From TrEMBL:
This is ATP-binding cassette domain-containing protein. It is a peripheral membrane protein. It comes from the Bacteria. The keyword ATP-binding applies. It comes from Streptomyces carpaticus.
Length: 241
């Protein structure tokens, strides 16, 4: 059983954001859709064990999210990647690998490899504070790849990336071992919904759809042209937000 979220509630200053979410993240790729403020980043941060639910439980293959081992199996790309002043791209990625339990030597080698997968080999020795927004995003993706996690939780991974880098990112995902589960939060409804196996839609703190891509697209009326089905299906599920 992959990541399992059971009856999770989360509020910021008593304002509920997640309201009794029950969710089992399937294997392969899933896109997480939802309007601004739906609670996607909050849900990902809970699944990454960065935040704790006020009620409910989260586990991965029977390992509770409060367990250190849980964090080693899961990788998270936050919506905002923190740049660590003074560190080079390779040092920052290696540091994350080390935090996830790799030896210093293994993390150092894996950091170079992860940065080459996001086409940043020529920036290994560059200070992260000198990188562009899109390059920092790619450093974040490298951080998520560095320790060969079994589950990748990616919060708007392609935001700020140019079209070529979006393609590289998709190729990188496609090349992951089949047993790795990936959950990708995105607003690119038309793009990713048709390139993943599963779709989850979160609206006002509740999951309003979870299933395969065909089932998601079936929410659009049958006379909608194929190129617009994803967009229309999304509007049907979330209103015009
Ligand atoms: N640190 C915080 N303190 C208080 N409220 C917060 C905090 N983070 C998020 N919120 C609120 O919680 C709600 C859900 O936010 P969240 O970032 O999880 O949504 P989202 O679906 O990821 O949105 P977006 O698509 O805009 O990134 C929003 O109303 C937001 O204002």
């Amino acid at each position: 059983m992959p990541v399992e979220i059971s009856d999770c509630w989360f509020s910021y200053r008593k304002r509920p954001v997640l309201r009794g979410v029950n969710y089992v993240l399937p294997e392969q790729r899933t896109v997480l859709l939802g309007p601004n403020g739906a609670g996607k980043s909050t849900l990902l941060s809970l699944a990454a064990s960065v935040r704790r639910p006020q009620r409910g439980t989260i586990s991965y293959r029977g390992i509770e999210s409060t367990d250190r081992e849980y964090r080693r199996r899961i990788a998270w790309l936050p919506q905002q990647v923190t740049v660590m002043p003074g560190l080079t791209a390779r040092e920052q990625v290696a540091y994350v690998g080390w935090l996830k339990g790799m030896s210093k030597t293994a993390a150092w080698a894996a950091a170079a490899e992860a940065l080459s997968r996001v086409e940043l080999s020529e920036k290994l020795g560059e200070k992260v504070t000198r990188l562009s927004g899109g390059q920092v995003r790619r450093v974040g993706v490298a951080q998520a790849l560095v320790h060969d996690a079994e589950v990748l939780l990616l919060d708007e991974p392609t935001a700020g990336m140019d079209p070529r880098q979006r393609r590289v990112f998709r190729d990188t995902l496609a090349a992951l071992p089949a047993e790795v589960s990936v959950l990708i939060s995105t607003h690119d409804v038309a793009d990713l919904a048709e390139e993943s196996e599963h779709v989850t839609v979160l609206h006002k703190g509740k999951i309003v759809y979870h299933g395969d891509v065909e089932g998601f697209l079936a929410h659009a009326p049958s006379d909608v042209v194929p190129g617009r089905r994803a967009e229309v299906a999304y509007s049907v599920l979330c209103g015009d937000e």
